[in-house]
Amino acid sequence: MASRLLQQMGYKADVTANGLEALKALERKAYDVILMDVQMPVMDGLEATRQIRARQKDPGVNPNFARPIMIIAMTANAMHGDREKCVTAGMDEYVPKPVRPEALQAALEGFAPKLGLKPEAAPEKVGSPQPPSPADHSPQMTRASSRSAALPPVDMSRLNEFSGGAADNLNELVTLYLKQTTEQLQQIAVALGEKDMATTARISHSCAGASATCGMMAIVPILRNLEHSSSAGDVAASNRYGKEAAAEFERIKIYFLEHPPLLSAA
After folding, report:
1. Which of 207, 102, 218 is nearest to 156 (CA)?
2. Radius of gyration (C-alpha) of the chain in whole angstroms
3. Per residue in 56-95, pLDDT tens?
4. Are residues 97 and 202 located together in one domain of the fold?
5. pLDDT by residue (tens digit) across 152-190?
6. 147 and 244 part of one domain
7. What is the domain extent for residue 163?
8. How many domains does the chain have?
9. Do 104 and 216 lie in a common domain?
């Protein structure tokens, strides 16, 4: 999702799956800015940042670490102390999820003069300032079923904001979201069947972040509850929330099947 948004702004970006892969990418190629997810498998964003900053102190090892590298934290856990942890690890800025296009654009443009950067094309101003959704940040269990029933499956204003109001962008974004979420829910089902709570929590966290960013707000509290229950090792609750998430995703798919003009209208 971030990659698509950066492309819309006129920037080029490469994507890696975890902090270790990010380090290997930096060894191969110089980068100006890193959007660093905090929660990742293998190596999280905090440790990856610490290792990058350590290597910058000895740039003779690899010239790609000799230049300034701006690291922007991206995390859905907007909890007290998170920003301090990111800054202590060596990050320069902090953008909470769900990612607001204007917040990400402001962060990039703030660093651009320091790095001599400019996008390949004039950046398109995307979105309008809106407060972040509290549903994406709650660390506590919520009444997911009752909340979801009261919410529409798709917040089209949020989806249009993220797609920049362009029909092609909207169609691409919906297709990407449906494909990615289908795969993630299948992975969650397998992990739950194997009672692999760590994998369930990690994938639920990722799926909730993408859902909130795209405006699928009714499924977010369910996925957050799934993340928290699996982190706590509560198998019964995790299985219940897994089924609720799958049911809510069916509601999302039905919404788009019943509103096909949304995918062809600007």
Report:
1. 218
2. 19
3. 998 787 899 988 899 999 876 555 567 788 889 999 988 8
4. no
5. 899 988 888 777 777 777 888 899 899 999 999 999 999
6. yes
7. 134-263
8. 2
9. no
